[in-house]
Amino acid sequence: MNVALAAVLAAPGLAVGSFLNVVVARLPLRRPLSKPRSACMSCGTELRWYDNLPLVSYAILRGRCRACGAGIPLRYPIVEAVTAVLVVACGLRFGLTADALVAAFFCAVLVVISAIDLERRIIPNRIVLPATAIVLVAQTLLHPGVEWLLAALAAALFLFLPLLVYPAGMGMGDVKLALLLGAMLGRDVAIALMLGLIAGTAPAIVLFIRHGSAARKKAIPFGPFLAVGGVTALFVGEAILDWYLGLRG
Ligand SMILES: [Zn+2]
């Protein structure tokens, strides 16, 4: 592993993660991303720069606002850490290339979508649709062909058909998220969907066994599972596919 490259990419990764937290907090509320400055959600005190450092400030403040003592959601350090790890992983996996940049953008979008879906049970069109368009254009320019468009449409169709049969399970947001996964991953999107479905239906089945039909009301957001499947396919999709095809001889 290239330790120097990882160390160099960690700082911008943390900075991007910090910005993603702003997106997660403000975009669903239709508040502007650029202003005002970040403030405590409880007392409204504006954050000084030293209270707004990724990970560090959360640790120093022990997860509490300096002014009013209100708890800072654990989502902040988690989003910062996960984003930094993913940005570093994109650099290590794809080198300092345009592919790495597109992959990092894809990962950042998945982090935002997962956090918003967990908090609000929605996947905003204003994120997933423009992101899909950007990724589709980028992939088609970098690797000319129709694979990206076809995979996007096939993945969305794959999730849309069960939606017609069992509408309680997933939402149209998940179908649009599948578009994004297909545009980025091409044929590897099959792996992302398979992993996402396995990971996402297991807890749903457990809930159903425990609570019967009442489990429907405890609906688990599906977006984060698709996102984890998408990230896994991005980094090790080829390896999984080779292993699987090898099994079949
Ligand atoms: Zn406060």
How would you sum up this structure, described in words?
With 249 residues, this protein is an all-alpha fold. 69% of the residues lie in helices and 0% in strands. It has nine helices and no strands. The protein has helices at 3-26, 56-60, 75-94, 98-120, 125-142, 147-165, 172-185, 189-211, 223-247. Helix 1 (3-26) packs parallel to helix 4, helix 4 (98-120) packs antiparallel against helix 5 and helix 7 (172-185) runs antiparallel to helix 8 (189-211). The longest helix has 25 residues, at 223-247. The protein is globular and about 60 Å long. It starts with a helix and ends with a helix. The relative contact order is 0.10. The mean pLDDT is 91.
Task: Summarize the SSE layout with pairings.
Blueprint: H1 3-26, H2 56-60, H3 75-94, H4 98-120, H5 125-142, H6 147-165, H7 172-185, H8 189-211, H9 223-247
The site of zinc ion has 8 residues, from loops.
Helix content: 55-70%
Distance between the termini: 32 Å
| Rg (C-alpha, Å) | 19 Å
Bound molecules: zinc ion
In one word, what is the shape? globular
Structural category is: mainly alpha
Strand content: under 5%
Taking the sheet with the most strands, its summary is: none
User: What's the order of the H and E elements?
Assistant: HHHHHHHHH
Multimerization state: single chain
Mean pLDDT: 91
Number of helices: 9
Low-confidence sequence ranges: none
How many beta-strand runs? 0
Task: Report a brief summary of the structure.
Helices cover 69% and strands 0% of the residues. The chain is mostly helical. Zinc ion (ZN) is lined by residues 40, 42-43, 45, 65, 67-68, 70.
